[in-house]
């Protein structure tokens, strides 16, 4: 569809334990005509149960989840969808955690305090990569 001048729909999976943050992200992302949130999870366990069936181009992934580190999920996400991208979006951006996530295959890292414009632009770029 890119060649026809139409925007490609980017499908997004959100993995964050804070429901309020996920709700804000859904509102932000789905307010864009080319972005759609297709799956949500609040833990590694919930995310793992959806990975095989969820349709996603970009996963917005928190590192600090109640049942482990989000970086532990990245390999499974790439296995389920090799063309998909992982955007780490976390408030806990300790250099060790960031390095671990990047080694696991994360494409980009943003702080949860990033501007809405930066989040949208990053998701679009990763979704069209």
UniProtKB/TrEMBL annotation:
Record-level Gene Ontology MF annotations: DNA binding
InterPro entries in the cross-refs: CheY-like_superfamily (IPR011006), NreC/VraR/RcsB-like_REC (IPR058245), Sig_transdc_resp-reg_receiver (IPR001789), WalR-like (IPR039420)
SUPFAM superfamilies the UniProt entry points to: CheY-like
Gene Ontology biological process terms, A to Z: phosphorelay signal transduction system
Modified residues (4-aspartylphosphate): 62
Keywords assigned: DNA-binding, Phosphoprotein
Boundaries of every Response regulatory domain copy: 11-127
PROSITE patterns, sorted: RESPONSE_REGULATORY
Protein name as it appears in the record: Response regulator
Native species: Rubrobacter tropicus
